[in-house]
Amino acid sequence: MDGHAAVVLPLVLALVGISSGSRLRFEDSAPRLVEEPSDVIVSKGEPATLNCRAEGRPAPVVEWYKDGERVRTAPEDPRSHRMLLPSGALFFLRITHARRSKPDEGVYVCVARNHLGQAVSRNATLEVAVLRDDFRQAPSDVVVAAGEPAVMECVPPRGHPEPRISWKRNNVRLSSKDGRIAMRGGRLMISHTRKSDAGMYVCVGSNMVGERDSDPAELVVFERPVFMRRPVNQIVLADDNVDFLCEVHGDPAPTLRWRRDQGELPRGRFEIRSDSTLRLLRVRQEDEGTYTCVTENSVGKTEASATLQVHVPPQINIQPKDQSTTQGQTVTFHCGTTGNPQPAVFWQKEGSQILLFPGQPASQSGRYAVSMSGELRVSDVHHDDAGFYVCQAISVAGSTLAKAHLEVERDQSEQFPPIIRQGPANQTLPLGSTALLPCQVIGQPLPSIHWEKEGQPIQAEGHDPRVTLMENGTLQITDLEDGTL
């Protein structure tokens, strides 16, 4: 106001000088402001009004000063875009403002005068709202994985009043009602991003002048690989084919590969199918191990594993051999086995219900013992130990067996020649009936039996289907004919 007073003061003195020579009427009064101008911010090209209303007698004359200089209005200045309204207000038809010329922006004072004095208003600042075009910092493209936070930065164009910032996604205004979205200053923060958050984002700077949109920035929300189907542990038999499944989802589409933790995939015996399934062909025991599906894309990597067990049916690779011994001796039958898992081995004498297992106590097995490696030992051999002994190997993959014969020879002192205890007798039988000709013999060693007719040997097998030599030595002839044989 001091600067303004320097302009106004001479005028005041002049008015006082004039009034001193005239007669003062009792009802005259000095100017009094009943409405003063307020600070105003207005957009370029828009109309504006600075209010000022004064009372006094005689009616005061109102003038305006800008930055200490009197404002020329129309019609005093025909080219002026400012007008003094009857109320005393200063009206701007349109606010003029340019980068180098700002004729309307400044500090305004309203002065009301009559012959009794003057009234000076408060300073009122007229500012022209501005909003530049160029963003000081436009948002940049952001790539995140789903679940991660995303941040975009924006510094709006210079402006007055300072521009407010808002955001749009795909041309739709964002709302902070979504608790994951926070807009503070020029920063947009999205916590725990979702696939649906992806899109084109625009930073909007606005004030009373209008709005400015930044260039769009893209938010790309990728998804880490996620298993839809995982490989599972498998147990198969040797020579079978086996499939390990592996199905994943992700964005961008993940790559997928297989590895074997214990070495290379079986060379020449595997294939990876179009659906990423790993197929192993004609598996072997050495293919056992852990197989891992490894998948990754630009935002993550994950893997899943499964084990393969290959069961091999038991096989007897060391066959027990027939043996001959005498009473009181000890014999050992070997029986070597292979298989996966390692088969259990036990022995059994043919015709006996007793099973002989490795490590079985002597109280249960008597003179028989089976070692942990599967060998059968028979101690103090007796005559009744003679016969077939069966080695059996069994596992979850199957079973197999092998047998060997034990012959127990008698001492020479115990041997004697064959004796026919019951021989055939004369018989008269009808045609078509069956004849049984007995022949019971004893001897040591046990004699073999054969039959003759009239000095010619009888072939019991293959010669005549009606003739059979039974185990007890009896000759059986069926469907008798006259002159049989």
Topology record:
Layout: H1 2-20, E1 29-35, E2 40-43, E3 48-50, E4 53-57, E5 61-66, E6 69-70, E7 82-84, E8 90-92, E9 106-114, E10 117-120, E11 124-131, E12 142-145, E13 150-153, E14 159-160, E15 164-169, E16 172-173, E17 181-184, E18 187-190, E19 199-207, E20 210-213, E21 217-229, E22 234-237, E23 242-244, E24 247-251, E25 255-260, E26 270-272, E27 278-280, E28 289-297, E29 300-318, E30 323-326, E31 331-333, E32 336-340, E33 344-349, E34 355-356, H2 362-365, E35 368-370, E36 376-378, E37 387-395, E38 398-409, E39 416-422, E40 435-437, E41 440-444, E42 452-453, E43 456-457, E44 467-469, E45 475-477
Parallel strand pairs: 2-11, 12-21, 22-29, 30-38
Antiparallel strand pairs: 1-4, 3-8, 5-6, 5-9, 7-8, 9-10, 9-11, 11-14, 13-18, 15-16, 15-19, 17-18, 19-20, 19-21, 21-24, 23-27, 25-28, 26-27, 28-29, 29-32, 31-36, 33-34, 33-37, 35-36, 37-38, 39-41, 40-45, 42-43, 44-45
Descriptive labels:
485 residues; disordered N terminus; Immunoglobulin-like; 5 domains; 45 strands; mainly beta
Summarize the structure in words.
With 485 residues, this protein is mainly beta. The protein has 5 domains: 2-131, Immunoglobulin-like (Sandwich); 142-223, Immunoglobulin-like (Sandwich); 230-312, Immunoglobulin-like; 319-409, Sandwich (Immunoglobulin-like), CATH 2.60.40; 414-477, Sandwich (Immunoglobulin-like), CATH 2.60.40. The chain contains 2 helices and 45 strands. The strands form 12 sheets. Strands 2, 5, 6, 9, 10, 11 and 14 form a 7-stranded mixed sheet that branches. Strands 12, 15, 16, 19, 20, 21 and 24 form a 7-stranded mixed sheet that branches. The longest helix has 19 residues, at 2-20. The model is unreliable at 1-22 (pLDDT under 50).
